[in-house]
Structures are given as C-alpha cells and as structure tokens.
Amino acid sequence: MNSTHAILVTATEELLKLTDQIEAIFDEVKADKQERDFFEEVRPFAESAQNLSDKWVEMAKEYVMLEKPKHIYREQIEQAGELVSTCSVQAFFPSTSLKRFKNQLQSIRYTLEGLLTHLKDNLHLS
User: What's the pLDDT tens digit per position in 56-69?
Assistant: First the structure.
C-alpha cells in the first residue's frame, strides 16, 4: 500500500471525526444559546480544524488529479475544506442557521465519505 494513500485515508477519517465534533459543538451551543469565548475556545479549535483541513485538501487534490475517481472533483475537495473551516467557527454561535449549517455538514460528509470509499476500494481496505 502506498504510504501517501494511507496518510490520506487517516486524514479523511480524522476530518470525518472532526465534522462529528463540530456538529456536537453546534448542537450544544444551540441548546444552551450561549456563545463561546472567541480567544479561549473558538479560535484554537478553528485554527486546529483549518490546519487539518488544509493538509487534507492538498493531499486529496493531488490524489484526485492523479487517480481521477468518478464523481469526485478538485472543486468539491476545495469546497469541503472551506466548509470545514467555516463550520468550525460557525458552530460556536447560536445565531447560526440550523438548516444551512446541517446542509453544510452533509456536504462535507458526502465528499469525505465518497473519497474514503474510493480510497478504500482502490486499496482493498474495505
């Protein structure tokens, strides 16, 4: 197995977990209607999410360019990365639109799961 592909599988799985974490934060913030402290909670979390997302986007775009998986495109990868960054901040604010936020999470998951399925199918890891 190519170590670059294994790293991409791991990074994709980490982003899926991060997406779940973002959703859990959002649900908690919506329930208690309390914004979180920007410098103590929001910024460190968002920076960590951004770093993971940026690394994943670069690896995933390269993979898509080389392997040309069906129904997965560079633009999709870039959009998923941007949505992770956006949602990692929006999750902390109760004024964030529920419907829009959940749709963005669904879009992120669709791309991540599609890529992960393709990676695992091609690496026989399923």
Answer: 999 999 999 999 98
Structural domain 3-123, CATH architecture: Up-down Bundle (1.20)
Token output for 32: 């208690």
pTM of the full predicted structure?
0.93
CA distance 58 to 35: 32
Mean predicted confidence (pLDDT) in 83-111: 97
Integer Cα distance of 98 and 27 in angstroms: 9
Burial class (CB in 10 A: 0-12, 13-18, 19+), 40: exposed
Beta-carbon contacts of residue 50 (< 8 Å; ≥ 6 apart): 84, 85, 88
CA distance 65 to 48: 26
